[in-house]
Fold this protein.
Amino acid sequence: MKILKKIATALLVAFVVAQFFRPTQNKSLGNHTKVFIAETNPPEKVRVVLEQTCYDCHSDNTNYPWYNNIAPVSFWLSKHVRDGKKHLNFSDWATYSDKEKDHKLEEVVETLDNGEMPLKEYTWTHEQAKLTENQKILIKEWVLHSRALYQLKNLRQ
């Protein structure tokens, strides 16, 4: 019984100490998706879906929930955001070549079709991020139009 008490105390101390260490938050000022919006010109309904469903993990500005203030959840969320931005960062749209932009948009459709995005872990706590079939269709139509523009640019080069 003594060993269990020691383990529980050590775990409690580790939990309390962990609260004093925080990962850097993914926050930016200003219109961080300006170039992306200007180039791809999503319809208002698609823009709202992107803001509510994608930007937290795929842009330079995350709206953190209250539970992000609790370690180890804060580290877990930080890792998800970093991983998401590695695959696609709407805030870095200007840094991608036209070919990369086309490919990133292609992957948007693939992840929707495969049910990979939005992540289940995200939709558990963000009810508005659960996409309806109609929203998926709107996104795919917008992506097809945007991809056509990039493909046309690539052909001209």
